Amino acid sequence: MESSKETGCQAPEGPILCINNCGFFGSATTMNKCSKCHKDMILKQEQTKFAATSIENIVNGNSSSNDKEPIVTGAINVQLGSAELKVISTEASSDLSSGQSSEVKPKEGPTRCTTCRKRVGLTGFNCKCGNLFCAAHRYSDEHDCPYDYKNAGRDAIAKANPVVVAEKLNKI
Q1: What is the pLDDT along the chain (172 residues), one digit of tens a residue?
Q2: Annotated Gene Ontology MF terms (predicted)?
Q3: Distance (Å, rounded) from C-alpha 50 to C-alpha 85?
Q4: Cβ of 119: how many Cβ atoms within 10 Å?
């Protein structure tokens, strides 16, 4: 008891319950919360920070969070009488004036076997010749594959096993 008076440290008078009333005991290091409530609070804080930064990036037009300065790609016109904002992008107007449309992929049809035109979907097999085949035509002898497997195998073996030649020894 005398040592606590000398150091100035005070022992807690009793256990402190969590301030969220979850039934567990809290501590002063976790702001009188139990460990679970403290972790939940920290997680919520991190999520709100992440959401704020991602919203800020979207508003500023930044594609990554590493950029420090906001990039403005267009001009903003504000009318005093209305609350509407008109965003005019300079990139979009230059694309429209040159007559080129932005790159939009057309909707692809269902994936089909190159040989029998059967729908394969996600179960299709890509061959080394670059075509897509069903389970029946996936092997090279079934679809008359033009890819040369023998020469490809020879080249792979030649690269993996280079010729090692030792220097000749001088006769003594």
Answers
A1: 455 556 666 655 678 888 888 888 888 888 889 989 999 999 999 999 988 888 888 877 765 444 444 444 444 444 444 444 444 444 444 444 444 445 655 556 678 999 999 999 888 999 999 899 999 999 988 888 899 999 999 999 999 998 888 888 888 7
A2: DNA binding; zinc ion binding
A3: 26
A4: 12
Q: What is the DSSP letter of 112?
A: B
CA distance 4 to 8: 6
Confidence (pTM):
0.32
Structural tokens at position 12: 């807690």
Phi/psi-derived region of residue 62, left when phi > 0, alpha when psi is between -120 and 50, beta in every other case = beta
Which alpha helices (DSSP H) does the chain contain, by range? Answer: 2-7, 35-60, 90-98, 149-160
How far is residue 37's CA from residue 49's CA, in Å, rounded to a whole number?
19
What would the two tokens of residue 22 be?
A: 């979850």
Burial zone of 79 (CB within 10 Å; 0-12 exposed, 13-18 middle, 19+ buried): exposed
What H or E segment, with its residue span, contains residue 17?
Answer: strand 16-17
Query: Rounded distance, CA 119 to CA 109, Å?
Result: 10
From first CA to last CA, the distance across the chain in angstroms is 92
